Amino acid sequence: MSIDALLTVRDLHVTLGHGARAATVLTDVSLDIPKGAIVGLVGESGSGKSTLAKTIMGIHRAQAGAIEFQGETIAGPGSRPRRSANRAIQLVPQDPYSSLDPRRTVGQTLAEAIDPRRARLAAHRDAVVAALEAVALDDTAVDRYPHEFSGGQRQRIAIARALITEPELIVADEITSALDVSTQAEIIDLLIRLREDKGLTMLFITHNLALVERLCDQVAVLLHGRVAESGPASQVLASPASDYTRQLVASVPGGPGFTLESPAP
């Protein structure tokens, strides 16, 4: 594990399914997430991005290799996941609507994140309001239901739910993929501000290189379940070493240097 790494993935192998249906999804995957950094994970659909996220979260098991969090192994053959990691690592899913209970108010959902066994909104209202304000939603959101919000607002609620436990690491899995460009920009601005205010550490999973360029310090590129290339985001995007990364960069509108503010070609 690197000296400054909060989370380290080393030589990770993940196979999903059983028997004849088994398929190896990740092979020899390694990456470091330094404390206070935002690391991008990019690749086309089916490259293994979400599988890595779910393995970090303990949803999938690793057949070989290891994941270390704060110096302790939390995933790998024979490992016992550390209970405290359940709160210290939080997932923001791709589809916040399906992850938010439509029968619960936003306040109830966030209170449950604080104390799953005794989700008492009255006891946690101040913390809930503070979490919502941190993502630019006011206290009127507390007593409303998920269907009353736009897609971008629901994503803010999902981010607030992740933040309210004061995690060490957030895993953001394609959280802008269902949003229009202007709403994507708002969410990225929010993440940049949260990083400045809270020292946010994040694994940011996306297929959008423009977002990586704007948000991420480092990036790893997945191809067929293997890391094709990794390094500082500015370096990888400006001078990609692998053919696959060059193809990805070339496919971005405007080519290298494209950002959300760039005019469409």
UniProtKB/TrEMBL annotation:
<dbReference type="InterPro" id="IPR050319">
    <property type="entry name" value="ABC_transp_ATP-bind"/>
</dbReference>
<comment type="similarity">
    <text>Belongs to the ABC transporter superfamily.</text>
</comment>
<feature type="domain" description="ABC transporter">
    <location>
        <begin position="7"/>
        <end position="249"/>
    </location>
</feature>
<dbReference type="InterPro" id="IPR003593">
    <property type="entry name" value="AAA+_ATPase"/>
</dbReference>
<dbReference type="InterPro" id="IPR027417">
    <property type="entry name" value="P-loop_NTPase"/>
</dbReference>
<keyword id="KW-0547">Nucleotide-binding</keyword>
<dbReference type="GO" id="GO:0005524">
    <property type="term" value="F:ATP binding"/>
</dbReference>
<dbReference type="Pfam" id="PF00005">
    <property type="entry name" value="ABC_tran"/>
</dbReference>
<dbReference type="InterPro" id="IPR017871">
    <property type="entry name" value="ABC_transporter-like_CS"/>
</dbReference>
<keyword id="KW-0813">Transport</keyword>
<protein>
    <submittedName>
        <fullName>Dipeptide/oligopeptide/nickel ABC transporter ATP-binding protein</fullName>
    </submittedName>
</protein>
<dbReference type="InterPro" id="IPR003439">
    <property type="entry name" value="ABC_transporter-like_ATP-bd"/>
</dbReference>
<keyword id="KW-0067">ATP-binding</keyword>
